[in-house]
Amino acid sequence: MCGACVLVINNRRQVLMQLRKDNGCWGLIGGSMELGETLEQVAHRELFEETGLSAKNLKLINTYSGQDFYYQYPHGDEVYNVVTAFECKEYSGRLIHDEEEATMLQFFPLGDLPKNISPPDRPILEDYIGSNSKNPSNH
Q1: Do residues 62 and 7 make contact, with C-beta atoms less than 8 angstroms apart?
Q2: Residues 130, 2: Cα–Cα separation, whole Å
Q3: What is residue 45's DSSP assignment?
Q4: DSSP strand pairing (70-72 vs 29-32)
Q5: Burial letters for 33-63: b for 16+ Cβ neighbours within 10 Å, e otherwise?
Q6: pLDDT by residue for the chain (139 residues), tens digit each?
Q7: Total Cβ atoms within 10 A of residue 14
Q8: Where are the domains of the chain?
């Protein structure tokens, strides 16, 4: 399954996460590609649908795939995700969560993330935090 996620980073170096209804875990903003979309279009659409925010600027982080991105949804569907992650530090709009997919949205410090992170999002967050700690110019 192909999709995109967005690491929305505020000026306090906190990442926006949503408490997902389907698995009760905190996850990144994002979702699956619809027919004919580019990955950047997926990121823009999902960001707006799930948060009410519009990205002024998206920066490509990486594309992730493989064993770490296997996921079984609570209803039984199994997928291997191919996820392209984007960073968004400039955005506008009023924060409001998608009531069908999440119970709340919250910013978390990158060094103090919640314990119950949705499994496919954990390696993306770990990679982002690791690459930003090695390269201070990304701050």
Answers
A1: no
A2: 24
A3: H
A4: unpaired
A5: beeebebeebbbbbbbebbbbebeebeebee
A6: 899 999 999 999 999 999 999 889 999 999 999 999 999 999 999 999 999 999 999 999 999 999 888 888 778 889 898 999 999 999 999 999 889 989 999 999 999 999 999 988 999 999 999 998 766 555 4
A7: 17
A8: 2-138
User: What is the CATH superfamily name and number for domain 2-138?
Assistant: Nucleoside Triphosphate Pyrophosphohydrolase (3.90.79.10)
**Torsion of Cα atoms, 135 then 55 then 21 then 103, to 10°:** 100
Please count the CA atoms within 13 angstroms of the CA of 11 that sit on its side-chain side: 2
Q: Name the token pair of 55.
A: 């990205």
Burial class (CB in 10 A: 0-12, 13-18, 19+), 104: exposed
Counting runs of H as helices and runs of E as strands, what totals does the chain give? 2, 9
Long-range contacts of 71-74 (CB under 8 A, 24+ apart): 71/119, 71/120, 73/22, 73/23, 74/22, 74/23
Please indicate, yes or no, whether the overall pTM of this predicted structure exceeds 0.70. yes
